[in-house]
Design a protein that fits this description.
The protein has about 450 residues and is mainly beta. Helices cover about 15% and strands about 40% of the residues. A hairpin with a 5-residue loop joins strand 23 and strand 24.
Length: about 450
């Protein structure tokens, strides 16, 4: 790992010299970095080849140190360390590691634990190949006024919006979103509308359950949308036991909420039955829609604006055979909105849907990634897709079907071609969950600019 870090630092120094020279001569400087298509629009759209993928990983008792950790994998084919783990940073204990997200300036990566409610903030700009723990937020529940289960970490200008999954009163699904500064100072709590308190929102159907899960925005439409899942009492339960518990199966969200982005006030509660999970909003300026998939009913739903400016929800496609409950989990939309990959946990498959007609997606490809598959992250240029395997510690499969991996593929528009994999059990790392990309070149240019500014000041 020491050698890997030295090589990457040499690469950064070389790039910094090039960037600095370009700045000194007044030339335009292009940095080739990369990002996932699910990132916040408040972060710069950066394209090209990513250097690293960070994998937020669940610790497993008896495997390695048993702790949750941030695992760094080198994914640049030009690197001598391509396809290998170059760093692993443990955070202490097992917290039900789940989702993570960059701040808008990409200097920090926030990562949450659904069980302990801790949020770990990593410095990923000082040395992107070797993140360090900058801060741990341990008062999430008390500071927020009772929100439990920090899930999505989503960048706003100078802010991080953290969605909750539960509450500390009954550990059910009613919850809120918690807003912080980039460095972890509490700002505000935004509760989800319920039947008992719609918070000024219009109820568009049968439900106003107050559940939460994911958040995305369309700034040009002043739109924020949230989806809904289930509470602590369900997501910490054994999956088989939960499936057999009729009362537990009633405790899943059925709503997407449309919010006023600027005021953070809910405007309309839309019925989207069946536990809508990840949200992905269109990137193209003429596309006024977002997508979500429902875990229990295996459908693709579109949240769209009509000609009068009203927002609606409608099911637009089935994912596999809904009667078999393949359990759609994560999905990744292409940056030109022309299609998306969606993973189904139970059959271990990913499917690609063509979005030529956004209101009528068509599946055109499918393949098995593993015995189980959860997250998928796609590069901005659409050429690379990465997959990980863990859903939740108590929901992952048992025995031989409990594969834990990171797998990298190339996509040529017709099929996925596997490039390499990292076996997380063999490497004694744990259960691989969510991914985030990073690249040295982004911070090399930033450092060069900062250095140039200091030199100018001293002159």
């Amino acid at each position: 790992m020491k050698t890997a870090t030295m090589i990457q630092k040499m690469r950064t120094m070389a790039l910094g010299i090039v960037v600095g020279a370009g700045l000194a001569m007044g030339l335009p400087v292009s940095t080739a970095t990369a990002d996932e298509t699910c990132m916040s629009p408040y972060m710069a759209k950066i394209t090209g080849q990513e250097d690293f993928v960070y994998v937020w990983t669940l610790g497993v008792e008896g495997i390695g140190d048993g702790q949750d950790k941030l695992v760094t994998i080198d994914v640049n084919p030009a690197s001598p360390n391509y396809g290998t783990v170059i760093d692993s940073l443990s955070v202490g204990g097992r917290n039900e590691a789940h989702h993570s997200g960059f701040t808008d300036d990409r200097r920090y990566l926030w990562a949450g634990g659904l069980d302990t409610n801790k949020i770990f903030i990593f410095d990923v700009h000082t040395d992107p190949a070797k993140p360090v723990l900058f801060k741990t937020i341990e008062d999430f529940v008390s500071a927020s006024g009772g929100v439990v289960g920090p899930h999505t970490m989503y960048a706003f200008p100078g802010r991080m919006m953290v969605t909750g999954l539960s509450n500390n009163k009954d550990h059910g699904g009613r919850t809120g979103m918690v807003e912080y500064t980039n460095t972890g100072e509490y700002v505000a709590t935004h509760w989800m509308p319920t039947d008992g308190d719609l918070l000024g929102a219009e109820k568009g159907g049968k439900y106003a359950d107050g559940y939460g899960y994911d958040v995305r925005v369309l700034p040009r439409k002043n739109l924020m949308v949230t989806s809904s899942f289930t509470g602590w009492s369900n997501y910490m339960m054994d999956f088989g036991k939960m499936l057999g518990d009729a009362e537990a199966m009633k405790r899943f969200g059925n709503t997407v909420v449309v919010w006023d982005l600027h005021t953070r006030k809910p405007r309309k509660v839309l019925d989207v039955p069946g536990a809508p999970l990840e949200l992905r909003c269109a990137w193209q300026p003429n596309h006024n829609w977002c997508l979500t998939t429902t875990a229990l009913t295996s459908k693709v739903w579109m949240i769209y604006e009509d000609e009068t400016g009203e927002w609606h929800a409608k099911a637009v496609a089935d994912i596999g055979d809904p009667s078999k409950v393949p359990l759609p989990v994560d999905f990744s939309i292409l940056s030109d909105d022309s299609g998306f990959f969606v993973n189904t946990f139970m059959d271990g498959k990913t499917r690609f849907f063509d979005m030529t007609d956004p209101h009528n997606p068509k599946q055109v490809y499918e393949t098995v990634i593993g015995t189980q598959v959860n997250m998928v992250s796609g590069s901005w240029d659409g050429k690379r897709q990465y997959f990980t395997s863990s859903l939740l510690a108590n929901w992952d499969k048992k025995g031989a079907d409990d594969e834990q991996y990171f797998r990298a593929y190339h996509w040529d528009g017709k099929e996925l071609v596997k490039q390499f994999e990292v076996d997380f059990y063999k490497e004694k790392l744990g259960r691989s969950h969510q991914m985030r990309f990073n690249a040295y070149s982004l911070f090399a240019s930033n450092n060069a600019i900062e250095s140039g500014t200091r030199l100018a000041s001293s002159d």
